[in-house]
Inverse folding.
């Protein structure tokens, strides 16, 4: 509707009313359903439902393959170094770690004993 409000096929005054009601209705699902039933014909309503289902499907598939963020603690000095590099590279801290330490540069080995990985 934002791209082509004329697909409602109503007069200009009714279209303006529909747009105003749409802006209020899109916040809550039940209100949006009521708006669709009021302003859309059967084919338009079916298109909306299909678009919503496709978007939900894409979102569900995407969420399956994205690993959740991990939280770490770094010293203030380490944060300053990462932040300076991130600013220089115009990247996030995560991107700095991946770009600078990931890939071919990464060497997997046994971690040295530290207070963080000691087992009792």
């Amino acid at each position: 509707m934002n791209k082509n409000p004329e697909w409602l096929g109503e007069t200009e005054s009714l279209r303006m009313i529909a747009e105003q009601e749409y802006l209020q209705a899109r916040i809550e699902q039940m209100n949006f359903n009521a708006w669709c039933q009021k302003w859309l014909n059967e084919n338009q309503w079916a298109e909306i439902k299909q678009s919503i289902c496709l978007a939900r499907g894409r979102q569900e598939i995407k969420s399956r393959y994205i690993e959740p963020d991990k939280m770490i603690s770094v010293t203030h000095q380490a944060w300053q170094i990462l932040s300076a590099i991130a600013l220089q590279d115009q990247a996030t801290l995560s991107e700095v770690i991946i770009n600078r330490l990931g890939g071919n540069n990464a060497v997997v080995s046994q971690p040295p004993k530290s207070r963080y990985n000691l087992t009792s």
Notes: The chain has a mean pLDDT of 80.
